[in-house]
Amino acid sequence: MAANYACLPAWRAACAEALGCEIRTLRLRAGSGAGLGLFHYAFLNSRLFGRRIISLPFSDESGIELKPGADPAEAGRAILAGLDAIARETRAASAELRGQSPALEALGGALSRSEPYVRFLLDLSPGYPAVAARYHSNLAKNLAQGARRLEVQLIKEPKTGTLRRLYLIYLAQMRSFGSPPLPMSYFSAMAGSGLYVFFEARLQGRSAGMLAAIPDGDALRADVNASLPEFAASFPKVRLFDESVRWACAEGFKTYDLMRTRRGTGVYDHKAKWGGAERPVVYYRRAYSAAARTEPDPQGAVYRLGALGLRLLPLALLERLGPVIRAGAGK
């Protein structure tokens, strides 16, 4: 069974260690008793977000590993039966399964289906010059002007002080978004497991931005791209994306994933300019209570006051409280 990064024991251990989130594994079996594969999931119990089954938390991967030749329809029925049993045991209000899978598609109307996010995938097979030639003219202009002043360094095994410096850039950006951050211990666990490679952008010796990426088979997946506002005129995020694309091409990766985004946003418009193919990020839900039948919208008005509060927090307090909120949300 081929595993994406989110099915790897090291990634599940990073979630458990940093966020106190146990990721469990359900063995899928056909009616005959034959093994069909594995389904990884987590049960989250949050005062803010309720009791939920999620596959997988903090990732948009499906958490499903099917054996070669396994019947997707049989696997789907096994997953559904498992979800219902887990919901009865845990009194979960809903289940949320992320990522496309033939097993979930085979369930049809048993699960509601939505596409709240999209990702842009760059085909790296032609090599860096051909990939860069597909960049929008605005990106090329940014790279030719302010971004050229930035120096970018690849960091595979950051020391504690370096990791702390990179994390503080991420923390400051999450505060500007009004979004709860992951804890530094998650970054430490990912780096310690070899699941992260980092790129740091510096201007005249000062750290301006950071990008954390996950090598995943023949794909490089950008996971965090953050910068400090005082360096905005030098476009550190643009330079970091471009330099990591250049590195991925040199290392023989076939695909570059620019991370998920929402349609109709400025971030969506920006990522579309890199010349990648748009792919939906599919979510499946099953409600076990009347209150959970409406799919929550993280951009909805009910969360705006909370986002404003996070923007006003001192960084030290955000670092303490934000991961608690993030763990409850599972995103």
Describe the overall structure.
This protein has eleven helices and twelve strands. The protein has 331 residues and is an alpha+beta fold. It has two domains: 5-118 and 282-329, Aminopeptidase (3-Layer(aba) Sandwich), CATH 3.40.630; 119-279, Aminopeptidase, CATH 3.40.630.30. Strands 1, 2, 3, 4, 5, 6, 7, 8, 9, 10, 11 and 12 form a twelve-stranded mixed β-sheet that branches. The model has no long low-confidence stretch (mean pLDDT 91).
Give the arrangement of secondary structure elements:
Layout: H1 9-19, E1 23-29, E2 35-46, E3 50-55, E4 64-66, H2 72-90, E5 94-98, H3 102-105, E6 112-123, H4 128-133, H5 137-144, E7 151-155, H6 160-177, H7 184-192, E8 197-203, E9 206-216, E10 219-227, H8 236-251, E11 255-261, H9 266-272, E12 277-287, H10 304-312, H11 315-329
Helix pairs in contact: 1-7, 6-10
What helical percentage do the residues reach? 25-40%
H/E series: HEEEEHEHEHHEHHEEEHEHEHH
Strand content: 25-35%
So what's the overall shape? globular
The biggest beta sheet, please?
A: 12 strands, mixed
* Tally of discrete structural domains: 2
Mean pLDDT: 91
End-to-end C-alpha gap = 26 Å
The number of helices is 11
In the predicted model, the low-confidence regions spanning at least 5 consecutive residues are none
CATH topology of the largest domain: Aminopeptidase
Question: How many β-strand runs?
Answer: 12
CATH C-level class of the largest domain is Alpha Beta
Structural class: alpha+beta
* CATH architecture assignment of the largest domain: 3-Layer(aba) Sandwich
CA gyration radius, whole angstroms: 20 Å
